[in-house]
Amino acid sequence: MKKNLKFAAVLALLCCAASVFAQNKNVQKNQAQQIKEVKAKIEKAVFEVVVPKPKEENIVYMYDLPFEFIDDSIRNDKYLPVGTAFLAEDGLFYSAVATFKLLEQTQYGPYYVRDHSGKLYKIDQVESFATNRGFIAFRAEGFDAKKVKTPLKAGASPGNNTIVFSAAYELGDGLVVRSGMVTAKLNEQTNAEWKWLRISAAAAPKTQGGPLVNLNGEVLGIIVPQPDVQALTFALPFSEVNEIAPHTGEVIHHFDYAMPSMNKKKFAHKFYHEVSLPKNLETIQKTLRTGFLRYRFEIAEHLVPHFGAKGNMGFLYSSGSSDILSSGTVPAFPLVVGLSAGNKWVFQQPQNIYEENTQDGGGIIFGGMMGTIFAVVKRPDSIPYDKFCLESSNYIDYILLANEISRTVAGEAVPIMSFGKALKVDNYKDAQGRTWYIDYWNLPFADSMAVSYALPLPEGIFVMLSVADTDTVTALSCKALEFEADCVYPRYVSSLKNWKDFLAFLKKEQTIYPPFDNLTLNLADGKFSMKSPVISADIDKSTFEITEKTTFALGVAFELKDNVLKQKVRSIELYTNRKSEDYKYVHFSENIKPEQDARQEALSLWKQKINKGTPYTATPYNQGEFTFYDEIIFESGTKDRRKAERIFLLSCEMKGANKAAEMKAFAEELKKNIKISQNR
Amino acid sequence: MHTCFFAAAIDYESYACAFSSNFFELHKLTHESFNPAENAKQLQRTCIQLLRSNFQVSSPKDITKAAENLKNNGDNAAFQTAVKLFETNKGKSTLDIIKSQCLPVKDASTLFFAETMKDKLRIKDLSAWDNGRIIELYRCAVGAGYISQENAVEAIKPVIDFLYSTYTSWDDYFAHYFAGKQMSALYEGKYASALEAGKQAYNITKGKINYGEVPLKNEKNTATGAGIILDLTYEPSPSGNQWESVQKLVSSKKTLDNRDLTSVQNLQKKFPDVPCIEYLAVEIQFRQRAYRKAFNLGTHLAELTAGAPSDSPLFQQIQLTYAKSAIKISKPAAAEKALEKLPESFSKTGEFLETEGRLFVELCGTSSDYDKNEDYKKRAHESFKAAEKAGIRLPQDIKDWMRLNGVRS
Q: Which of these, A165, A355, A389, B383, has the minimum number of CB atoms within 10 Å of its CB?
């Protein structure tokens, strides 16, 4: 009996499982059947939005792009799909407005709709659009809407949990219909003016602009992208397209404008514009793109008088200015003045800095920060200075070699070796009077661009390189890089030979700027002489044997005089190869008393120096295999050192420990040879 | 204690009881003493309730204000304004005056009332009603214990003097009193029943009060009759009759909602381009957060009322709601234009200042100029603070905005 019962129970369970399995299979079958039916109803009314494939530019890749792994239909297609559109019963095409980049700069266009048989129609008159609602309604050239027998009819507003179907043209798959459900109706974010239809993930299409339809193939909504919630799929209820006044295009665009060097400081902006329609799509694009670009340029230009290098809330006048103005060191890597998260102006540099050198004397020191690659590219001996600075491929190719930028084809990332010849070159004279060389390159395969701002340095060139989509580079990156260029605190370090080439280049290009307008450097018969407004030196080879290979470094400081921002010499350094037996190092600098609101470390260091605390005792001391010397020199006539506003520091190093007497004599000679001026 | 009709001398108390007899009869209170609750202390509660529901008086300090209000802004004042509109707009139809003067529904109803009643009244006003109400107010206040009888009598003496010397008989007085009563009930669509109830109450009081013992100054014929009363029955014109559906809809509930939209749309068809009806649709859409619809309807309404007097309260509400809708759908320029149309006097109101503040919030960020945006921010703060001073309780979203957008000095 018990055995029979067990058997019956097992049988019942099996029956249950079989029934569930059969039900699931039926559901799947039903679903597939429904999708097939819906697709048949709508396919003639759904179109692909395409643009001509952009021409390949002069980009050089590490190896041939593996196009052979791409499907023939895609590879041989002369057009690039960018979205989906559908024909409604009013004879108009509807799509997502974002597909057409009405505001953004792009390399793509003109726009076409392509029907299920592959026939193309150029998009012509736009009848209505609203950027916040995300839709556009248009006509196409030569397209006879009457010939389409099944344009999409408007369906009744769906409730939550209604079964819906999304339709979209997807690359390589043609028209794809997916089924899902309306999972929620969510208020429009600004004023709850309408409710978005949120669709279950199952119905999420890969492209925007397609219709959301019901089982009868009636259109319920337009699938539009949501910038803030990319993971979810939303549709604009189709009835909302009638809310816009007839023959009107509305731009209601809210965006944050930010300068990357001003951490977290965002300026909320709104771009409103109304266009009377119908008008040609290209005319609208041209008008709006120009207007929006100008608007963003103006925002940047208006920020400069406030937050720029000379701005009333910039680094010269706001929190952090004391530290920046009292600095005069030679940084290991160029610094950019930026606004910290704590709303204080500080020197910034990439967190991770990498260095690679080549056999020919060239090399690169680089790092990434604020979405930009910052690099010092050292000039190889084989390339003359002029050529190196004036032909951007000489330094950009170095950056590409060190910092890989690639293009993905058939899932394979192929490194770019060279952007090729620049599309456009330009100059920018920054707030300090320095000339930056600007180069732009197109990366059409991704509707992107690269822009570099380059500042010649004695050792090579300092480059800020930004790679982003076309709109970002055109409208934002260039202004952001100008903003940063104004505040760059570079490192002027190189051999005296390179210094000579550098100064000659500035003179030849007529781009000489402070402090180099008041700087003379000379090396003749083993005698080195330099002259700047505050520090000058005449060092004979009997004191320090200086050759063309000797490294000379200049430490500069920001100075604003008569509303002209410039940099002045505050320290000099001279040194030979640290590894050589006759290694010598000399540092001489003007030190300015920091303001009371400066960093505690700066205030302590100042106190240490004026009190001649260790190591500033003018007594040679050993450290490893080297002898060191640090002496604080007060201006003549200083009676109370606590009241000193500036002091001078002489620091020396030489190879070999216990060379106190030699070091002392060396320092005494240098003190005779280095002169300071009363100028400030 | 004074008694009304059994005392030897005829005094103010007696006249007060007679002039207010209709009201107290309707509310089943006594005519026998000035204090309607004197002989039945339990009636004190009734008096307190009557003060609250009929005169918006809830404490002794409200009495004088309520009396002043009846005197200056009572139904007679509205009636007189309507009569004046006919004089200044001779040759125009009532509906044309409603349109051109941008009258709200209530004032439009008054205009229709005045259209036929202005020629029927012997004395071209409704002061019998408002003054009668003042007496009712003071007697109720005595009954409620809010005021002494002596003070009440002192306060109503001028009113009684006026009524005593103005009307030629009690029928004449009550005919005018009922005319006012009808106008007052007009807004609830109950003027006919109000008249009927009043007339019945008058007939009852005739059995309780000997009106002959309180003759009026110019009384020639003390005989009572219903003839004059019937003469002053409000009989609306055909348009006035149609207009009752508008008044009824507005009076049916405190605020109209989406369910009333069809009724409003029907009225729009019946009375095309009448601002107060168009505005009902705007208001419903705005309240439903259909700002786009409210704005589109408002655009049409703004065109309709382009030449309307700027001191019209409806015109001011139209502009304000239009500005609010425009702000909600990111059209600050339209909002700015609407607010500019409002008169200086209106720009001091809390509602205006709050809307102005919201406009500045909306304008923040619309300029590429950093300084200009900072200025908008500053002006938004100023407007919100002024709105608060003007008695507006700022909503949380504004408070949050103010907290997050401190102004840099």
A: A355
Q: pLDDT, tens digit, for every residue of A480-527?
A: 999 999 999 999 999 999 999 999 999 999 999 989 998 999 999 889
Cα separation, A639 vs A391, in Å, equals 55
Which value does ipTM take for this structure?
Answer: 0.86
What are the φ/ψ torsions at residue A243 (nearest 5 degrees)? -75, -20
Q: Which pLDDT tens digit goes with each residue over A595-611?
A: 888 889 889 999 999 99
Q: Kindly tell me if the per-residue pLDDT of B208 is higher than 60.
A: yes
CB < 8 Å to A295, chain B: 368
**Interface contact B330-A269, CB threshold 8 A:** no
Contacts of A573 (CB under 8 A, 6+ apart): A330, A493, A551, A552, A553, A554, A555, A585, A586, A587
How far is the C-alpha of B388 from the C-alpha of B401, rounded, in Å? 15
CB contact under 8 A, B330 and A302: no
Contact A110, A123 (CB under 8 A): yes
pLDDT band at residue B222 using 50, 70 and 90 as cut-offs: very low
Nearest alpha-carbon partner for A178 in A162, A170, A167, A188: A167
User: With contacts defined as CB-CB under 8 Å, which chain B residues touch A245?
Assistant: 296
DSSP A156: P
d(CA B130, CA B119): 19
Tokens of residue A469, six digits = 């989509």
What gap in Å lies between CA B21 and CA B31, rounded to an integer? Answer: 7
Q: Nearest chain A residue to B366 by CA: give it.
A: A270
Are the beta carbons of A434 and A341 closer than 8 angstroms?
no
**CB of B264 closer than 8 Å to CB of B278:** no
- Asked which of A235-239, A357-361, A404-408 is least confident by mean pLDDT, the reply is A357-361
Question: Average pLDDT, whole number, for chain B?
Answer: 90
Tokens matching residue A564: 């002209």
For residue B331, the chain A residues in CB contact (below 8 A) are 272
Task: Compare CB distances from A252 to B330, B365, B370 and report the shortest one's residue.
Answer: B330
Name all contacts of A112-117 with Cβ < 8 Å and 24+ positions apart. A112/A49, A112/A50, A112/A51, A112/A79, A112/A140, A113/A47, A113/A48, A113/A49, A113/A50, A113/A85, A113/A140, A113/A143, A114/A47, A114/A48, A114/A49, A114/A50, A114/A79, A115/A44, A115/A47, A116/A43, A116/A44, A116/A46, A116/A47, A116/A175
pTM of the entire structure?
A: 0.85
Determine the residue of chain A that is closest to B328 in CA distance.
Answer: A191
Q: Does A247 touch chain B (CB under 8 A)?
A: no
| Mean pLDDT of the residues in chain A | 91
Q: Which residues of B372-384 are buried (b: 16+ CB within 10 A; e: fewer)?
A: ebbbbbbbbbebb
Amino acid at B244: E
Identity of the residue numbered B248: K
Choose from B370, B372, B374, B408 for mutation: most chain A CBs within 10 A: B370
* A175 has pLDDT over 90: yes
pLDDT at B227: 45
Q: Which two tokens stand for residue B336?
A: 């700015």
d(CA B154, CA A666): 113
Alpha-carbon dihedral B286, B291, B294, B295, rounded to 10 degrees = 140
Question: What amino acid occupies position B33?
Answer: S
Residue A263 CB-density burial (10 A; 0-12 exposed, 13-18 middle, 19+ buried): middle
In a 10 Å sphere around its CB, with 0-12 CB exposed, 13-18 middle and 19+ buried, how is residue B339 labelled? buried
Chain segment A76-123, per-residue pLDDT in tens: 899 999 999 999 999 999 999 999 999 999 999 999 999 999 999 999
Q: Check residue A161 and give left, alpha or beta (phi > 0: left; psi -120 to 50: alpha).
A: left
End-to-end CA distance of chain B: 69
B298, exposed or middle or buried, with CB in 10 Å at 0-12, 13-18, 19+? buried
pLDDT of residue A616: 96
